[in-house]
Design a protein that fits this description.
This protein is globular. The protein contains 5 helices and no strands. It is mainly alpha-helical and 70 residues long. 29% of the residues are buried. The termini are far apart. Helix 1 runs antiparallel to helix 2, helix 1 packs parallel to helix 3 and helix 3 runs antiparallel to helix 4. The model has no long low-confidence stretch (mean pLDDT 90).
């Protein structure tokens, strides 16, 4: 739980290097992609996509990273 919290906080702040160190799976990358896109963290979005994040994954709120980036 602590790792996920740190990962989410780093994503919200756009800390690409920290996210890169903490990221451990495609599932984690996909979950973080909409938040990174919403905050406009381009380098972080690139990292998450490189790590296998799916831009079409629908969040619990019913949006995708593409919706958030628009």
């Amino acid at each position: 739980a602590e790792r996920q919290r740190a990962l989410r906080n780093a994503t919200l702040r756009g800390e690409t290097e920290v996210v890169d160190l903490l990221l451990d799976s495609e599932a984690s990358a996909a979950a973080l992609l909409p938040e990174a896109a919403l905050k406009g963290h381009g380098k972080l979005v690139e990292l998450l996509l490189d790590r296998g994040a799916d831009v079409q994954r629908v969040t619990e709120a019913g949006s995708t990273a593409l919706h958030e980036a628009a």
